[in-house]
């Protein structure tokens, strides 16, 4: 394991990372460092904000893949992403394996079926760093063909502090350039307002809370734990909100949300 970090290639990559003077060059150098540590099928660096649309600082996808995955994600489904939820709550530097941070019924959720499953990711490691009071920078390292082995996870743990230091530097460099550009935060406000008010006056506040948790992949038992109510009460609310919305399945619920997000 240590020999990988003893090579001249590795030390040259670290030197390049330290010498980078722009956000773009620093991102590219960081990707090289990650690639040398573990084989992967793509990286993405995203700034998640409490009050604004996510911002992609860098990714290693092809243009076609970026249109298929990132553009669709940023159009609204990110609001249902467990990683987004974790990022906006995160207050300290954290490394997590995505599969360990999802709700209990995530793989049965329509978000999983209609978005995440189509990324074909079998495994994902995420490095989260709060860079301002309202912004968390997340480095996503994905694997499509097989899970990360324990030796690979240990290598990522070994370079964790290096990655966080690089993320801090990237953010500082990015912000210097971003101050000269205008950023449209209206889209996030519109999407968030749409999600927070999904169902309109037809739903009560409690039914809306349950709707949001169901859409994010929580089971009735998990919703009950989150809201501290009985599972039976959740099921009653679920039947009522389905009836009010004129639907009978989770798929129809998800479809209604996506339709609302697309028109917002």
CATH fold category name of the largest domain: Beta-Lactamase
Domain unit count = 2
Q: How many angstroms does the end-to-end distance come to? A: 50 Å
Put simply, the count of helices is 12
- Order of secondary-structure elements: HHEEHHEHEEHHHHHHH
Q: What does the model show?
A:
With 264 residues, this protein is an alpha+beta fold. It has two domains: 2-178, Transcription factor LuxR-like, autoinducer-binding domain (Beta-Lactamase, 2-Layer Sandwich), CATH 3.30.450; 197-263, Arc Repressor Mutant, subunit A (Orthogonal Bundle), CATH 1.10.10.10. 53% of the residues lie in helices and 13% in strands. It contains twelve helices and five strands. It has a five-stranded antiparallel beta sheet. A hairpin with a 2-residue loop joins strand 4 (123-132) and strand 5. Helix 1 packs antiparallel against helix 2 (23-37), helix 2 (23-37) packs antiparallel against helix 7 (160-178) and helix 9 packs across helix 11. The longest helix is centred in the middle third of the chain and has 19 residues, at 160-178. It is elongated.
In short:
The protein is of the alpha+beta class. It has helices at residues 8-19, 23-37, 63-74, 82-89, 110-114, 150-158, 160-178, 186-196, 205-215, 220-227, 231-245, 250-263, and strands spanning 43-49, 55-59, 94-97, 123-132, 135-143.
């Amino acid at each position: 394991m240590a020999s990988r970090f003893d090579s001249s290639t590795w030390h040259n990559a670290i030197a390049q990372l330290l010498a980078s003077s722009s956000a773009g060059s620093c991102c590219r150098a960081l990707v090289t460092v990650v690639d040398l540590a573990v084989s992967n099928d793509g990286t993405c660096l995203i700034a998640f904000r409490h009050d604004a649309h996510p911002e992609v600082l860098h990714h290693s996808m092809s243009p076609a893949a970026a249109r298929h995955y990132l553009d669709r994600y940023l159009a609204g489904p990110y609001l249902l992403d467990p990683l987004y939820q974790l990022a906006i709550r995160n207050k300290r530097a954290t490394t997590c394996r995505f599969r360990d941070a999802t709700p209990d019924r995530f793989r049965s959720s329509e978000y999983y079926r209609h978005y995440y499953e189509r990324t074909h990711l079998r495994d994902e490691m995420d490095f989260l760093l709060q860079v301002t009071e309202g912004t968390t920078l997340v480095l996503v390292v994905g694997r499509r063909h097989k899970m990360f082995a324990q030796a690979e996870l240990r290598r990522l743990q070994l370079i964790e502090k290096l990655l966080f230091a690089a993320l801090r530097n990237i953010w500082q460099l990015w912000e210097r350039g971003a101050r000269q550009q205008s950023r449209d935060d209206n889209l996030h406000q519109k999407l968030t307002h749409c999600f927070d008010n999904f169902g309109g006056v037809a739903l009560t506040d409690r039914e809306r809370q349950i709707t949001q948790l169901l859409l994010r992949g929580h089971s009735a038992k998990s919703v009950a734990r989150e809201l501290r109510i009985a599972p039976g009460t959740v099921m009653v609310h679920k039947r009522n909100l389905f009836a009010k919305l004129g639907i009978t399945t989770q798929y129809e619920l998800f479809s209604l949300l996506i339709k609302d997000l697309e028109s917002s």
